[in-house]
Amino acid sequence: MDRIPVLKMGAFLLVTIQVDMQDRQAMTLQDDLTHMVNAHQSRGVLIDISALDMVDSFMGRMLATIASITSIMDAQTVVVGMQPAVAITLVELGLSLPGVLTALNVEKGMELLRSRLVPSHDDSGDDDADD
Amino acid sequence: MDRIPVLKMGAFLLVTIQVDMQDRQAMTLQDDLTHMVNAHQSRGVLIDISALDMVDSFMGRMLATIASITSIMDAQTVVVGMQPAVAITLVELGLSLPGVLTALNVEKGMELLRSRLVPSHDDSGDDDADD
User: Fold this and answer.
1) Per the database record, which ranges form the STAS domain (chains A, B) (predicted)?
2) pLDDT digits over A14-63, tens only?
Protein backbone atom coordinates (compact mmCIF):
# COMPACT_ATOMS: atom_id res chain seq x y z
CA MET A 1 0.00 0.00 0.00
CA ASP A 2 2.98 2.27 -0.51
CA ARG A 3 2.28 3.14 -4.10
CA ILE A 4 0.07 6.01 -5.19
CA PRO A 5 -1.88 4.95 -8.27
CA VAL A 6 -1.59 6.93 -11.48
CA LEU A 7 -4.83 6.72 -13.45
CA LYS A 8 -4.86 7.20 -17.19
CA MET A 9 -7.84 9.24 -18.35
CA GLY A 10 -7.63 9.75 -22.07
CA ALA A 11 -4.72 12.01 -22.87
CA PHE A 12 -4.24 12.92 -19.23
CA LEU A 13 -3.01 11.25 -16.08
CA LEU A 14 -4.68 11.65 -12.72
CA VAL A 15 -3.03 11.25 -9.34
CA THR A 16 -4.96 11.57 -6.11
CA ILE A 17 -2.73 12.21 -3.13
CA GLN A 18 -4.44 11.13 0.06
CA VAL A 19 -1.60 10.45 2.43
CA ASP A 20 1.41 12.26 3.75
CA MET A 21 4.03 10.94 1.39
CA GLN A 22 7.29 9.53 2.58
CA ASP A 23 10.47 10.01 0.57
CA ARG A 24 10.21 6.57 -0.95
CA GLN A 25 6.57 7.02 -1.93
CA ALA A 26 7.40 10.33 -3.58
CA MET A 27 10.24 8.75 -5.54
CA THR A 28 7.98 5.87 -6.60
CA LEU A 29 5.32 8.34 -7.68
CA GLN A 30 7.84 10.32 -9.72
CA ASP A 31 9.03 7.14 -11.38
CA ASP A 32 5.52 5.89 -12.10
CA LEU A 33 4.40 9.25 -13.39
CA THR A 34 7.32 9.79 -15.73
CA HIS A 35 7.06 6.22 -16.93
CA MET A 36 3.37 6.64 -17.72
CA VAL A 37 3.83 10.05 -19.36
CA ASN A 38 6.39 8.38 -21.58
CA ALA A 39 4.44 5.20 -22.22
CA HIS A 40 1.10 6.86 -22.96
CA GLN A 41 2.45 10.10 -24.42
CA SER A 42 0.28 12.00 -21.97
CA ARG A 43 -0.06 15.73 -22.49
CA GLY A 44 -1.29 16.63 -19.03
CA VAL A 45 -1.03 15.52 -15.42
CA LEU A 46 -3.70 16.29 -12.84
CA ILE A 47 -2.64 16.06 -9.21
CA ASP A 48 -5.59 16.16 -6.84
CA ILE A 49 -4.64 17.25 -3.33
CA SER A 50 -8.13 17.91 -2.00
CA ALA A 51 -7.56 15.30 0.70
CA LEU A 52 -4.57 17.17 2.09
CA ASP A 53 -5.51 19.35 5.04
CA MET A 54 -2.00 20.63 5.39
CA VAL A 55 1.24 20.48 3.49
CA ASP A 56 4.87 20.70 4.45
CA SER A 57 7.92 21.90 2.59
CA PHE A 58 8.73 18.36 1.44
CA MET A 59 5.34 17.94 -0.21
CA GLY A 60 5.56 21.40 -1.75
CA ARG A 61 8.97 20.69 -3.22
CA MET A 62 7.75 17.31 -4.43
CA LEU A 63 4.88 18.94 -6.31
CA ALA A 64 7.23 21.49 -7.83
CA THR A 65 9.71 18.78 -8.82
CA ILE A 66 7.06 16.62 -10.46
CA ALA A 67 5.75 19.62 -12.36
CA SER A 68 9.25 20.46 -13.58
CA ILE A 69 9.86 16.89 -14.71
CA THR A 70 6.54 16.56 -16.52
CA SER A 71 7.01 19.97 -18.11
CA ILE A 72 10.33 18.85 -19.55
CA MET A 73 8.48 15.83 -20.88
CA ASP A 74 5.96 18.15 -22.57
CA ALA A 75 3.10 17.39 -20.20
CA GLN A 76 1.38 20.23 -18.38
CA THR A 77 0.80 19.71 -14.67
CA VAL A 78 -2.31 21.03 -12.93
CA VAL A 79 -2.68 20.84 -9.16
CA VAL A 80 -6.37 20.70 -8.28
CA GLY A 81 -8.43 20.84 -5.12
CA MET A 82 -5.96 22.81 -3.05
CA GLN A 83 -7.49 23.76 0.27
CA PRO A 84 -7.10 27.32 1.56
CA ALA A 85 -4.83 26.34 4.43
CA VAL A 86 -2.54 24.50 2.02
CA ALA A 87 -2.31 27.49 -0.29
CA ILE A 88 -1.47 29.75 2.65
CA THR A 89 1.20 27.37 3.90
CA LEU A 90 2.79 26.95 0.48
CA VAL A 91 3.13 30.69 -0.01
CA GLU A 92 4.44 31.13 3.53
CA LEU A 93 7.03 28.46 2.79
CA GLY A 94 8.06 30.39 -0.30
CA LEU A 95 6.82 27.61 -2.58
CA SER A 96 4.66 29.38 -5.12
CA LEU A 97 4.85 26.41 -7.50
CA PRO A 98 6.26 28.10 -10.61
CA GLY A 99 5.17 26.41 -13.81
CA VAL A 100 2.32 24.62 -12.09
CA LEU A 101 -1.21 25.47 -13.08
CA THR A 102 -3.91 25.20 -10.45
CA ALA A 103 -7.65 24.65 -10.65
CA LEU A 104 -10.43 24.44 -8.12
CA ASN A 105 -11.37 20.84 -8.87
CA VAL A 106 -10.66 18.01 -11.29
CA GLU A 107 -13.32 19.07 -13.76
CA LYS A 108 -11.98 22.60 -14.01
CA GLY A 109 -8.47 21.20 -14.23
CA MET A 110 -9.49 19.00 -17.16
CA GLU A 111 -11.13 21.97 -18.86
CA LEU A 112 -7.97 23.97 -18.32
CA LEU A 113 -5.80 21.24 -19.83
CA ARG A 114 -8.13 20.80 -22.78
CA SER A 115 -8.20 24.53 -23.47
CA ARG A 116 -4.41 24.66 -23.29
CA LEU A 117 -3.71 21.60 -25.33
CA VAL A 118 -6.49 21.81 -27.88
CA PRO A 119 -6.66 25.55 -28.61
CA SER A 120 -8.68 25.07 -31.78
CA HIS A 121 -11.32 22.97 -30.08
CA ASP A 122 -14.34 25.21 -30.09
CA ASP A 123 -13.05 28.75 -29.82
CA SER A 124 -11.13 30.78 -32.32
CA GLY A 125 -7.98 29.73 -30.49
CA ASP A 126 -6.20 33.03 -30.26
CA ASP A 127 -4.25 32.33 -27.10
CA ASP A 128 -0.63 32.01 -27.96
CA ALA A 129 0.77 32.38 -24.45
CA ASP A 130 2.26 29.22 -23.09
CA ASP A 131 4.74 28.83 -20.28
CA MET B 1 -6.34 12.89 6.39
CA ASP B 2 -9.19 10.54 7.24
CA ARG B 3 -11.41 11.40 4.33
CA ILE B 4 -11.24 9.74 0.94
CA PRO B 5 -11.89 12.34 -1.74
CA VAL B 6 -14.74 11.88 -4.19
CA LEU B 7 -13.90 13.51 -7.51
CA LYS B 8 -16.63 14.68 -9.85
CA MET B 9 -15.81 13.94 -13.48
CA GLY B 10 -18.69 15.01 -15.65
CA ALA B 11 -21.67 12.78 -15.00
CA PHE B 12 -19.59 10.35 -13.00
CA LEU B 13 -17.87 10.27 -9.63
CA LEU B 14 -14.42 8.82 -9.07
CA VAL B 15 -13.08 7.44 -5.81
CA THR B 16 -9.54 6.15 -5.47
CA ILE B 17 -9.08 3.90 -2.48
CA GLN B 18 -5.44 3.85 -1.44
CA VAL B 19 -5.55 2.92 2.21
CA ASP B 20 -7.02 0.18 4.34
CA MET B 21 -10.22 1.84 5.39
CA GLN B 22 -11.34 2.00 8.99
CA ASP B 23 -15.02 1.82 9.88
CA ARG B 24 -15.26 5.57 10.31
CA GLN B 25 -13.56 6.25 6.98
CA ALA B 26 -15.92 3.87 5.23
CA MET B 27 -18.93 5.56 6.80
CA THR B 28 -17.61 8.97 5.81
CA LEU B 29 -17.02 7.75 2.26
CA GLN B 30 -20.57 6.38 2.06
CA ASP B 31 -21.94 9.68 3.31
CA ASP B 32 -19.81 11.74 0.93
CA LEU B 33 -20.61 9.53 -2.01
CA THR B 34 -24.38 9.47 -1.49
CA HIS B 35 -24.35 13.20 -0.85
CA MET B 36 -22.48 13.84 -4.09
CA VAL B 37 -24.61 11.44 -6.13
CA ASN B 38 -27.60 13.37 -4.87
CA ALA B 39 -26.11 16.84 -5.29
CA HIS B 40 -24.68 16.30 -8.76
CA GLN B 41 -27.26 13.78 -10.00
CA SER B 42 -24.41 11.47 -10.94
CA ARG B 43 -25.26 8.47 -13.04
CA GLY B 44 -22.15 6.44 -12.35
CA VAL B 45 -19.56 5.84 -9.65
CA LEU B 46 -16.07 4.58 -10.40
CA ILE B 47 -14.17 3.04 -7.50
CA ASP B 48 -10.51 2.50 -8.27
CA ILE B 49 -8.88 -0.11 -6.07
CA SER B 50 -5.70 -0.61 -8.07
CA ALA B 51 -3.67 0.48 -5.04
CA LEU B 52 -5.08 -2.34 -2.92
CA ASP B 53 -2.76 -5.33 -2.83
CA MET B 54 -5.17 -7.29 -0.69
CA VAL B 55 -8.67 -6.95 0.59
CA ASP B 56 -10.51 -8.25 3.63
CA SER B 57 -14.14 -9.08 4.21
CA PHE B 58 -14.83 -5.63 5.63
CA MET B 59 -13.59 -3.94 2.48
CA GLY B 60 -15.50 -6.38 0.31
CA ARG B 61 -18.73 -5.77 2.20
CA MET B 62 -18.10 -2.04 2.05
CA LEU B 63 -17.77 -2.15 -1.73
CA ALA B 64 -20.96 -4.22 -1.99
CA THR B 65 -22.82 -1.85 0.34
CA ILE B 66 -21.75 1.26 -1.55
CA ALA B 67 -22.78 -0.36 -4.82
CA SER B 68 -26.19 -1.24 -3.40
CA ILE B 69 -26.73 2.27 -2.10
CA THR B 70 -25.68 3.96 -5.32
CA SER B 71 -27.77 1.51 -7.35
CA ILE B 72 -30.85 2.48 -5.34
CA MET B 73 -29.97 6.08 -6.13
CA ASP B 74 -29.88 5.21 -9.85
CA ALA B 75 -26.12 5.42 -10.22
CA GLN B 76 -24.19 2.46 -11.59
CA THR B 77 -21.08 1.47 -9.69
CA VAL B 78 -17.99 0.15 -11.45
CA VAL B 79 -15.04 -1.21 -9.50
CA VAL B 80 -11.88 -0.74 -11.56
CA GLY B 81 -8.27 -1.82 -11.29
CA MET B 82 -8.85 -4.91 -9.20
CA GLN B 83 -5.65 -6.87 -8.79
CA PRO B 84 -5.70 -10.65 -9.27
CA ALA B 85 -5.03 -11.39 -5.62
CA VAL B 86 -7.92 -9.18 -4.60
CA ALA B 87 -10.29 -10.92 -7.00
CA ILE B 88 -9.22 -14.31 -5.69
CA THR B 89 -9.70 -13.23 -2.09
CA LEU B 90 -13.12 -11.71 -2.75
CA VAL B 91 -14.41 -14.89 -4.34
CA GLU B 92 -12.88 -17.01 -1.60
CA LEU B 93 -14.65 -14.82 0.95
CA GLY B 94 -17.91 -15.43 -0.89
CA LEU B 95 -18.16 -11.79 -1.89
CA SER B 96 -18.81 -11.86 -5.61
CA LEU B 97 -20.06 -8.26 -5.57
CA PRO B 98 -23.53 -8.70 -7.04
CA GLY B 99 -24.74 -5.64 -8.92
CA VAL B 100 -21.24 -4.26 -9.21
CA LEU B 101 -19.68 -3.93 -12.63
CA THR B 102 -15.95 -4.29 -12.94
CA ALA B 103 -13.44 -3.02 -15.46
CA LEU B 104 -9.73 -3.36 -15.92
CA ASN B 105 -8.92 0.32 -15.50
CA VAL B 106 -10.57 3.71 -15.17
CA GLU B 107 -10.71 4.34 -18.90
CA LYS B 108 -12.48 1.06 -19.58
CA GLY B 109 -14.76 1.72 -16.62
CA MET B 110 -15.72 5.09 -18.09
CA GLU B 111 -16.37 3.50 -21.46
CA LEU B 112 -18.53 0.89 -19.76
CA LEU B 113 -20.54 3.53 -17.93
CA ARG B 114 -20.97 5.60 -21.07
CA SER B 115 -22.11 2.60 -23.08
CA ARG B 116 -24.60 1.70 -20.35
CA LEU B 117 -25.93 5.17 -19.73
CA VAL B 118 -25.85 6.54 -23.26
CA PRO B 119 -26.93 3.55 -25.33
CA SER B 120 -27.64 5.64 -28.43
CA HIS B 121 -24.21 7.25 -28.48
CA ASP B 122 -22.62 5.86 -31.57
CA ASP B 123 -23.91 2.34 -31.97
CA SER B 124 -27.36 1.17 -32.90
CA GLY B 125 -28.11 0.86 -29.18
CA ASP B 126 -29.82 -2.49 -29.16
CA ASP B 127 -28.81 -3.53 -25.64
CA ASP B 128 -31.89 -3.52 -23.47
CA ALA B 129 -30.48 -5.55 -20.61
CA ASP B 130 -29.92 -3.54 -17.46
CA ASP B 131 -29.61 -4.78 -13.93
Assistant:
1) 2-113
2) 999 988 888 888 889 999 999 999 999 999 999 999 988 888 888 888 88
Q: Assign residue A25 the CATH number of its domain.
A: 3.30.750.24
Q: Which of B4, B8, B53 sits opposite A107 (nearest CB)?
A: B8
User: Which of A8, A18, A107 is facing B5, going by the closest CB pair?
Assistant: A18
> Could B7 and A51 be called an inter-chain contact, meaning their C-beta atoms sit closer than 8 Å?
no
Q: Does residue A18 lie in a domain region?
A: yes
Radius of gyration of chain A from its Cα atoms, rounded to whole angstroms: 14
Question: Phi and psi of A14, rounded to 5°?
Answer: -125, 130
| B128 within some domain | no
When scoring A8, A16, A20, A82 by the number of chain B Cβ atoms within 10 A, the one with the most, hence best to mutate, is: A16
How many structural domains are present in chain A?
1
Cβ separation B16–A20 shorter than 8 A: no
Asked if B51 lies within 8 A of A106 by C-beta distance, the reply is no
pLDDT tops 50 at residue B118: yes
Question: Measured between CB atoms, which of B7, B18, B110 is closest to A106?
Answer: B7
The listed range with the strongest mean pLDDT (A5-9, A118-122, B69-73) is A5-9
Instruction: Output the CA torsion sign for B19, B25, B30, B31.
Output: negative
Complex confidence, ipTM? 0.72
Percentage with pLDDT > 70 across chain B: 89
Domain of residue A49 covers 6-115
User: Per the domain annotation, does A128 fall within a domain?
Assistant: no
